[in-house]
Amino acid sequence: AIYLDYQAATPVDPRVAEAMRETMLTDFANPSSDDHALGWKAHQRVELARAAIADAFGAAWGGLIFTSGATEGNNIAILGGARNAPPERRRVLISAIEHKAVLEAASALAAEGYDIERLPVDTSGCLDLDVLEALEGTTVAVISVMAVNNETGVVQPVRAVAQWAKRHGVFFHCDATQAPLAMEVDLSSWGVDAASLSSHKIYGPKGIGVLYLADDRPWTPRPLTFGGGQEQSIRPGTLPTPLCVGFATASMLVSREGAAERERVASLRDSFVASLRDLDPGLRLTAPSGDRHPGNAHVVFSRADAADLLALLQPVVAASLGSACTSGVIGPSHVLTAMGVSDSDASRCVRFSLGRFSDAAQLAEASHAIAKALNKQRGRALPA
Ligand code: PLP
């Protein structure tokens, strides 16, 4: 199959798998066991991994909390961040295009008496900063705005949000899950108070991520779970040494090879979109302007029904209707609705996402398969 769903999950890089295999077989002791040398060694592997991840993404070594992934990081930052805010701060701001792991975490706070406000985006899928600038922030506990949207690939104005949050003393969390493959990530200079990252979006294993906490954050999120005191008691539980090492290896590779890779992938993506346009001259990008994830091709076909098209492409091409995490939900995605995309246009949207192991031959094969599927949909026989 031709895999074009990198934004849902990336394949594990063989170099990551090799590092994990070795760790799993060798450093099996509990990294919290401080009574013997095998425990010390596992602990050392975990801390070296933490240092490598911090180094790759511009964080202080002590500012990274291992989590099970970005969903958990988002939940700790939003629920825990709001719960530890001063009592007069009872509002939570999120952008209208956040991932479910942010939307649902914020919604859960409504039951605790917080007011949840969704910030609008413009038609290019970018947060409307004028609306934010006009907001009074002294009663806001937490603002959460993502770095890069997982459906459209649109890069969000994180530094501007950070400046607003600083001015108003608001805890700023950024869901940076899709950022490492889209841009250089330098968390300290972004000015965020917290950020979530996930290993399986950067060629690492599933089930691990980090929550970054800046030294100068206005307060620390309250823990959601309680246990043996690991991870500064913010996220206790035995650390999975092989997953930590896998995530670290993946982070190192992204920081070393990312710049060249982004350039290569963007150029492949652009030729792929051009080839789709040859098949469907009316095809357009959902977010034609502004900064975008280099591997993202989120397109609106002029006629095809997207769900039917993806079904016709099985098992040859793996792409998606939008976010894997909301698929199964009937109706247009909240991201497209927030951008003002009509329901009819939304039903013709497909997200193709490319990455490290994509190449021109695969994309040519994918275009060919898409041509066949489109022809089938139009009820015409394929010319030989
Ligand atoms: N946030 C964004 C923007 C995502 O794309 C994803 C991916 O599914 C998540 C959060 C959830 O991350 P995880 O699968 O690590 O829980």
TrEMBL record:
InterPro entries: Aminotrans_V_dom (IPR000192), Aminotrans_V_PyrdxlP_BS (IPR020578), Cysteine_dSase (IPR016454), PyrdxlP-dep_Trfase (IPR015424), PyrdxlP-dep_Trfase_major (IPR015421), PyrdxlP-dep_Trfase_small (IPR015422)
Domain Aminotransferase class V: 2-363
E.C. number: 2.8.1.7
Catalysed reactions, as listed in the record: (sulfur carrier)-H + L-cysteine = (sulfur carrier)-SH + L-alanine
Enzyme class: transferase
Cofactor(s) this protein requires: pyridoxal 5'-phosphate
GO molecular function, one term: cysteine desulfurase activity
One Pfam family this sequence matches: Aminotran_5
Domain of life: Bacteria
Described function: Catalyzes the removal of elemental sulfur atoms from cysteine to produce alanine. Seems to participate in the biosynthesis of the nitrogenase metalloclusters by providing the inorganic sulfur required for the Fe-S core formation.
Recorded family membership: Belongs to the class-V pyridoxal-phosphate-dependent aminotransferase family. NifS/IscS subfamily.
Cited PANTHER family: CYSTEINE DESULFURASE, CYSTEINE DESULFURYLASE FAMILY MEMBER
Protein name (record): Cysteine desulfurase
